[in-house]
Amino acid sequence: METFYYVVVSIEGDYANLKRTDIESDDLKLVARALLPAEIVEGSKLKYELMQYTIQE
User: Which CATH number applies to 3-55?
Assistant: First the structure.
């Protein structure tokens, strides 16, 4: 299973825009806030592994 790294670019209501940081890409991924840790803010670094997002420290 692969691991992906993201940063929260913006939060818009019930959704957040995530940008990949482990590869060179300008694409944003729109993800429902319900799938993300409750304590995220813009600039939070996330790890996606085993179909789950966690805050990366």
Answer: 2.40.50
